[in-house]
Design goal:
Layout: E1 2-7, H1 16-26, E2 30-34, H2 44-56, E3 60-69, H3 78-88, E4 92-96, H4 107-127, E5 130-133, H5 144-154, E6 159-163, H6 171-181, E7 185-190, E8 193-194, E9 197-198, H7 205-213, E10 221-225, H8 233-253
Helix pairs in contact: 1-8, 2-3, 3-4, 7-8
């Protein structure tokens, strides 16, 4: 079953209550709460408050969008991230595969990120939470081949990956990504962008319908909006209507 949602980092300037109200107005189902502003790592009280806000609005916590990455020099540990995720009631923690692009990483770095991720995956598994990499530039998941190298190197049943369209590929490349990553694929970040320009999702509806139709079966997966044109709540509401239409058609086929 595919569900709809929003990344709270899309509206960093809004309070959690304002984000919740906007998602309810849009008719989406869940929120990935970001760890940089809305639910900081280790701030358990805030995480519990946001969990309550989300539940009282009839929404689900889709995931915890952490900015944990090996080698980034953050002042917090994975244990802080996990603590907040548990207080938030998040089923998945999004993490980042280090702070170097795959071309800049030597084998020692790969081994360190693999080891660190395995340790995090074990801690999360004991708590009943999944971890999933951001599919993103300037990390070891900055393309299909390095992502597969990392996932196969980690070889842990509690490690997954998100998908989003990287700007270096065309439509057929995106479909190939989805097929190759399908054993590990969890949530999606949904947006329509050309280099340097955010566009209404309606202009990418045909492509996104193909991407979502290509997804492997899953008991629960979220397609969540991000990068709204002009950071506009009004544009978000329009994009949400498009996303719901795409997801409803996909769910009707399963």
């Amino acid at each position: 079953m595919l569900h709809t949602g929003l990344l709270s980092v899309t509206f960093r300037k809004l309070s959690p209550q304002e984000v919740v109200s906007l998602v309810v107005k849009a008719g989406l189902e869940g929120i990935e709460w970001g760890g940089d502003i809305h639910v900081p790592p280790g701030d358990v009280q805030t995480a519990r408050q946001v969990k309550q806000l989300t539940a009282e609005a009839g929404l689900k916590v889709a995931s915890y969008g952490s900015y944990y990455r090996y080698g980034s020099g953050h002042a917090y540990k994975f244990e802080d991230v996990l603590e907040s995720a548990l207080a938030l009631g998040a089923p998945t923690i999004r993490i980042w595969a280090g702070n170097k692009g795959s071309d800049a990483a030597d084998e020692t770095w790969w081994e360190e990120v693999i080891r660190d991720t395995r340790e995090a995956a074990e801690l999360a598994a004991e708590a009943g939470v999944r971890i999933a990499f951001e599919f993103h530039g300037q990390t070891l998941t900055d393309g299909l081949e390095p992502a597969l190298k990392l996932l196969n190197g980690i070889n842990h049943p509690n490690v997954f990956i998100y998908w989003q369209p990287l700007p270096t590929l065309d439509r057929e490349g995106y479909l190939s990504d989805i097929a190759a990553l399908s054993p590990w694929l969890t949530n999606l970040h949904v947006y329509h962008i050309t280099p340097g320009l955010r566009l209404p999702l309606a202009e990418g509806e045909a492509d996104w319908s193909k991407f979502i139709a290509a997804l492997p079966p899953s008991e629960e997966r979220y397609a969540m909006l991000e990068f709204v044109k002009d950071d506009s709540p009004e544009q978000f509401l329009e994009d949400a209507a498009v996303l719901k239409r795409i997801v409803d058609k996909a769910n009707a086929r399963t």
